[in-house]
Amino acid sequence: MFLSETYRKIAADGIWHNNIVFGQNLALCPLLAVTGTATNGLGMGLATLVVIVASNGLISVARHLIPNEIRIPIFVLLIAALVTLVDILMNAWAHELYKVLGLFIALIVTNCALLGRAEAFASKQPVREALWDGLMMGLGFLIVLVALGAAREITASGTLFANASVLLGESFKFLEVTVIPNYKGFLLMALPPGGFIMTAFLIVGKRLIDQKIEQIKQRKASVTVLAPVIAEEES
Amino acid sequence: MKLDPATIECLKAKIAVYREFLKNWLEPANLAQLRPKLEFQTGVLAGFALIASVLLGVTNCSTEGTIQRRLDEDLKKSLAEVVPAALYDNDMLQDTMTVASAEYNIGTDETTVYIAKKAGRVSAVCFKFTAPDGYSGAINMIMGIDRDGNILGVRVLSHKETPGLGDKIEVAKSDWILNFAGRSLDNLAPAKWAVKKDGGEFDQFAGATITPRKSVQAIYRGLQLFKAHQSQLINLEN
Q1: Cβ atoms of A79 and A133 closer than 8 Å
Q2: What integer best gives the mean pLDDT of chain A?
Q3: Would the ipTM clear 0.85, i.e. be above it?
Q4: Which of A36, A78, A95 sits opposite B70 (nearest CB)?
């Protein structure tokens, strides 16, 4: 395995066990606001990923400088400055993308998960671990955003990744699929309540998978405990 | 300016001293001692604030021009959608006139009118306006009108109406907005500038009446604004 134990644990935490949405139940505001379509989810996820990696890195670099008493104002200051920077740079150099995502970029500031990672991880860990944690947490968030966006888009309008070419460029036109042709549409799923309902379904799904894994583990454990006994009895 | 070797050596030594000092100062053990001190905390907060503001200031200044160019391109694209290219040969962004529009309730007190000219003669005008009272906020639109007062085209630039219901005002979602082309205050009576439910000419949407109603009313007010300034606008010379 090319990753050490620590890194693997951070990755598993970020993507699955301690996932920003499923594990920590954070960042629901941007989550529900943008996941009307898979494309929007993807865009928001990428933007958040960039900011969370950068903020984790910066805060980890400066962690010895930051006194405990004033850490929160400094974190907020750094995150807000980063988000504004991304906002300005995107407006100038990725204007088409900005027109699609512009509204959501500023929303990253309200993403308490960034502050959460700064507080719980980056301010206590070396730079490389902090960057890795940001990457994995961001990735976990991205996956949830895309999954939720896809689920809502399919149920709401029967399409998947509509307008992906606007976000990613013409070469990604193949992503745009009509899953259910001649679909009448199910408006509720496109609106915020639909986001809540779908999030609930996804969380239930995650819990079920966790339960299954736990059961399999227990069965394996009991098998390994019993195996020598059975072997002895048979002999 | 040329420095003699002795000065350079001297400077190098000084820099080395500063670097040594900075390195020692940045040692975690030293910082751990400093951190509880109030003046250190004040300094750190001020330092971070300074770095953040300088960074943002520099970025803002260096991208301002680019962003403005991008916005101009956007505006040009919108203008081209509501005024056919055959009607003008000037740069509409440069040929503007500002008219007072407070009494027309179209979002702003002053409206910038972009003038389309063909061979120096005003052929059409174009301006942005707003229906401030949409179902969930302002609906921003742009409209092109020819010199006789006929609508060339209307487009919605941005809105917050309900997806799937009110967003049929977008040309990407339905043809509704195209029905306005060719209409004018002369060929449609004032009472007909309304949705069908209110006895007017234009369709409402199933499940969304307010959005099209307010859009029609705003377009009507926009036309009135044009009429009030028509003679002044179409007689503009180069």
Answers
A1: no
A2: 85
A3: no
A4: A95
* B window 118-147, beta carbon within 8 A of A: none
Q: Structure tokens of B29?
A: 């053990």
- Report yes or no: B95 and B122 within 8 Å, Cβ to Cβ: no
DSSP lists the bridge partners of residue B115 as B125
**Range of the structural domain that residue A107 is part of:** 5-234
HSE toward the beta carbon, residue B1, CA cutoff 13 A: 3
CA A25 centroid distance within chain: 11
Percentage of chain A beyond pLDDT 90 is: 30
- Report the residue from B41, B52, B59 with minimal CB separation from A88: B59
For Cα atoms A174, A99, B132, give the angle at the middle one, nearest 5 degrees: 130
pLDDT tens column, B60-72 = 999 999 999 998 8
Residue B47 is encoded by which pair of tokens? 């330092």
Alpha carbon distance A76, B35 (integer Å): 19
Chain A environment of B45 (Cβ under 8 Å): 70, 73-74
User: How long is chain A?
Assistant: 235
Residue to substitute from A79, A86, A90, A95, interface B, most B β-carbons within 10 A: A95
Residue B121 pairs with which residues in a beta bridge?
B118
The pLDDT value given to residue A1 = 46
Structure tokens at B161: 């109406």
- Rounded to a whole number, what is the distance in Å from the CA of A32 to chain B's nearest CA? 14
- Per-residue model confidence (pLDDT) at position B48: 93
pTM over 0.90: no
Exposed (0-12), middle (13-18) or buried (19+): which is A12, by Cβ within 10 Å? middle
How many domains are there within chain A?
Answer: 1
Question: A56-66 as b/e, with b when 16 or more CB fall inside 10 Å?
Answer: bbbbbebbbbb
The CA distance from B139 to B213, in Å, is 12
